[in-house]
Automatic annotation (TrEMBL):
Gene3D superfamilies: P-loop containing nucleotide triphosphate hydrolases (3.40.50.300). This is ABC transporter ATP-binding protein. Its main location: membrane. It is a peripheral membrane protein.
Length: 271
C-alpha cells in the first residue's frame, strides 16, 4: 500500500527552481534511497515533505500522506504529524539536542508533548528506547556533550522512532561519523526498520549503503529526477549517463556487489 505519494513537487527560491517536478511513491515498509551529487536537491526534496524548508524557499505540488496533501497542512497540524507519523534523522545530530538539557529531558519533553503518560512510564519508555539502539539506560541522565558522535546519532534515532512513525526520513545520517560508527548506525537503522516495519526515505552519497539496504532508488541531478526504479535495475542496468557516472565514480560499489554475489566477507558493509 502506498504510504506517501509525492506528485510534481517543486521548490523555488525567489522564482528560481531548486527542485523541479519531482514525483515518487513510497510503499509501506519500503526503503527508498535518493542519490545524487552534492547540490542535486535531495535534502530540499526531503525537507519540503515535512515543512522543514528554510523560510526563503517555497514548495508546490503534492505530498499525499494517507491521501492528505501535507503541503497544505497548517504549521500546527504538521508539527503534530512530524515526530509521530513522520520522523526525521539528520546528518547534524548535534542540532537535534539542546546542549544544556540531558538526553533524558529531550525524551521526556517529546513524550509529554505527544502522549498522556505518568512520569514513571515516560522514564521507562525513554530508557527502553535508549536500550533499543544499544545504549545503556544510564545515558538518560547524561548531557549531549558527554556522548560520542555515534552515541548521539543513536539517541537521535531512538528519539525519532519513539512514537513508532510510519515513515522515517533519514538525511545522510552517517556523514559526520567514522566508518565503523557509520556502519553500526546503518545496521541499527536496518534492524529497526525490519522490527518496526516503518518505511524509510534515505538520502545518501554512499552507494554501498544503497546496494545493501534499498528497495527502490531515485537518482537526482540539478533538482530533477533523471532515473528511478528498483535497486537492481538502477544499479546493475543504469540507463542514464549520469547514473552510470555516479556508479563509475563509486569503485567500491562494484567491489561490494561482487562480494555480495560471491558471498565474500571482507567488506564491512556487506556483513
Ligand atoms: N535556503 C536555501 N537558500 C538558497 N539555496 C538553497 C537553500 N537550501 C538549499 N539551496 C540550494 O538548493 C540546491 C539543492 O540543495 P540540497 O541541500 O537539496 O542538495 P543535496 O543534494 O542535499 O546536497 P548534499 O548532498 O550536499 O547535502 C543547492 O544548490 C543548494 O545550494
Amino acid at each position: 500500500m502506498t504510504l506517501l505519494s509525492v506528485n510534481h513537487l517543486s521548490v523555488q527560491i525567489a522564482g528560481r527552481p531548486l527542485v523541479s517536478d519531482v514525483s515518487f511513491d513510497i510503499q509501506q515498509g519500503e526503503w527508498l534511497a535518493i542519490i545524487g551529487q552534492s547540490g542535486s536537491g535531495k535534502s530540499v526534496t526531503a525537507s519540503a515533505i515535512g515543512h522543514l524548508l528554510a523560510p526563503n524557499l517555497t514548495a508546490s505540488g503534492e505530498a499525499l500522506y494517507m491521501g492528505e496533501n501535507l503541503l497544505e497542512f497548517s504549521a500546527k497540524k504538521m508539527r503534530r504529524l512530524r515526530g509521530t507519523s513522520i520522523s526525521y534523522v539528520f546528518q547534524d545530530y548535534q542540532g537535534s539536542f539542546t546542549p544544556f538539557h540531558t538526553i533524558g529531558r529531550h525524551f521526556d519533553e517529546f513524550l509529554k508533548t505527544h502522549f498522556r503518560l505518568p512520569k514513571r512510564e515516560r522514564r521507562n519508555r525513554a530508557e527502553r528506547a535508549l536500550e533499543s539502539v544499544g545504549l545503556k539506560a544510564e545515558m538518560y541522565g547524561r548531557y549531549p556533550f558527554q556522548l560520542s558522535g555515534g552515541q548521539l546519532q543513536r539517541s537521535s534515532i531512538a528519539l525519532a522512532l519513539l512514537a513508532k512513525p510510519d515513515l522515517l526520513i533519514v538525511d545522510e545520517p552517517t556523514a559526520a561519523l567514522d566508518s565503523i560508527s557509520a556502519f553500526k548506525v546503518l545496521r541499527l537503522l536496518a534492524d529497526l526498520q525490519q522490527e518496526t516495519g516503518c518505511a524509510m526515505l534515505f538520502i545518501t552519497h554512499d552507494l554501498r549503503h544503497v546496494r545493501k539496504h534499498a528497495d527502490q532508488i531515485i537518482v537526482m541531478k540539478q533538482g530533477a529526477i533523471v532515473e528511478q526504479g528498483d535497486k537492481e535495475s538502477v544499479l546493475d542496468r543504469p540507463q542514464h549517463p549520469y547514473t552510470q557516472s555516479l556508479i563509475a565514480a563509486s569503485p567500491s560499489l562494484s567491489e561490494a556487489s561482487d562480494l555480495l554475489r560471491g558471498g565474500g566477507s571482507v567488506c564491512h558493509y556487506c556483513n
